[in-house]
Amino acid sequence: MDTKKLVRMANQIAANLDYGQDRAALVQSVADHLRRYWTPDMKQEIVAQQRAGSAELNEAAGMAVAKLAEDQQNAA
C-alpha cells in the first residue's frame, strides 16, 4: 500500500476523532481505530515508516502509531 496514503489516512483519522478531549484520550482513540480497522500489513507499514523517520504524521497520529509499535514489539 502507498505509504503516503497511509500517512494521510492516519492524519485524517486523528483530525476526525479530535473532539477537544485531552491529548491522551485522542491518542488512545486513534490507536484503537487503527487496531480495529487497519490490516496487519497497513499497521506494519506505517510503523516501519515512522521508525525510519519518513512518516509525516501529526502529533496525535504519530503518538498512536508509536502505540502500535509498542504492540508489535510486545507481541514479538
Class per helix and strand makeup: mainly alpha
- Terminal-residue CA separation: 23 Å
Low-pLDDT residue spans: none
Beta fraction of the residues?
A: under 5%
Arithmetic mean of pLDDT? 94
Protein architecture, described:
The protein is mainly alpha-helical. The chain is built from four helices and no strands. Helix 2 (23-37) packs across helix 4 (59-75). It is globular, with a radius of gyration of 11 Å.
Label this structure with key terms:
mainly alpha, 76 residues, single chain
Summarize the helices and strands and which ones pair or pack.
Blueprint: H1 3-17, H2 23-37, H3 40-52, H4 59-75
Helix pairs in contact: 1-2, 2-4, 3-4
Give a brief outline of the structure.
The chain has 76 residues and is mainly alpha-helical. It has helices spanning 3-17, 23-37, 40-52, 59-75.
